[in-house]
Write a structure and sequence with these properties.
Number of helices: 0
Radius of gyration: 14 Å
Structural class: mainly beta
Helix content: under 10%
Strand content: over 45%
Largest sheet: 7 strands, mixed
Shape: elongated
Length: 123
């Protein structure tokens, strides 16, 4: 089955840390870009961080220096290490993978989204 499974969300105090994981299932040959987005109540979904196959990264200004994105291509997994969390980081976090190639049906997916995981930063 072709899907993304996220884990690692939860409740944390301001200044704390969380690590999100997102694994892609299926007979995967390659994944182009992996990323994390978030959506807070009443706001549009926004890019948090992205990483290419070659390891180039891109971060939202609001998380630079606090969040780190990484990927394990052998496990088809992307991670988001979140440090120095602030209440304004509270949101549902979604992983997204672009350009997923499989060795069998469906052979290619332009994009895949995870189901979302809640991150709440509160004292």
């Amino acid at each position: 089955q072709v899907q993304l499974v996220e884990s690692g969300g939860g409740l944390v105090q301001p200044g704390g840390s969380l690590r999100l994981s997102c694994a892609a299932s299926g007979r995967i040959l390659s994944i182009n870009v992996m990323g994390w987005y978030r959506q807070a109540p009443g706001k549009q979904r926004e890019l948090v961080a992205a990483i290419t196959t070659g390891g180039s990264t891109n971060y939202a200004d609001s998380v630079k220096g606090r969040f780190t994105i990484s990927r394990d291509n052998a496990k088809n997994t992307v991670y988001l290490q979140m440090n120095s969390l602030k209440p304004e980081d509270t949101a549902v976090y979604y992983c997204k993978m672009d350009g997923v190639r499989y060795s069998t049906v469906p052979y290619y997916r332009r994009e895949l989204w995870g189901q979302g995981t809640q991150v709440t930063v509160s004292s």
